[in-house]
Specification:
The protein has 145 residues and is mainly beta. The chain has one domain: Virus Head Decoration Protein, Chain: A, CATH 2.40.300. It contains one helix and eleven strands. The chain has a five-stranded mixed barrel with strand order 3-5-4-6-7.
Length: 145
């Protein structure tokens, strides 16, 4: 499950830095769900139009109220609503996006000037893996704006 683990932090096999938080997503954890801080050491699903994602859930099956691993840096599997393309950006949704979904990401081409600032602040990283359809995981080199 990990290369290094000290109970609260670990390096995942994929090359991500994961930290433990309490699962308050409203459901048993789903790998790749994008999350934000909701209270002390607690995460919930990222909301549409709020640029505060801190990472993606690493392990599925963790009950509400239990400790769940969240990848906050490096490589993570992220759950996307659309097909992904390696080299595209991954981001959470802004209010103007059709089909916006809490806790999921959107794959889109790197923008050209003038850049859309609202989208820029929802960026979660650079997609390094292509997948064939919606509601699938793809690897992302995480970073947050």
């Amino acid at each position: 499950m990990s290369v290094w683990n000290n109970k609260k932090a670990m390096i995942t096999d994929e090359g991500g830095l994961a930290i433990q938080y309490i699962n308050e997503t409203g459901e048993v954890s789903v790998k790749g769900t994008t999350v934000h801080i909701t209270a002390a050491w607690t995460v919930g699903k990222t909301a549409v139009g709020v640029p505060d994602c801190i990472g993606a859930i690493y392990n599925s099956g963790v009950a509400i109220g239990d400790w769940v691993w969240v990848v906050v840096s490096g490589i993570a599997d992220v759950l996307f609503t659309n097909q992904t393309t390696a080299g595209f950006l991954g981001r959470t949704f802004v209010a103007a996006d059709a089909g916006g979904a809490v806790g999921k990401a959107l794959s889109e081409a790197v923008p050209t000037p003038p850049f859309a600032n609202d989208k820029h602040f929802c960026e979660i990283g650079h997609i390094i893996e292509t997948n064939s359809g919606p509601n699938q995981l793809a690897k992302v080199n995480l970073h947050f704006n």
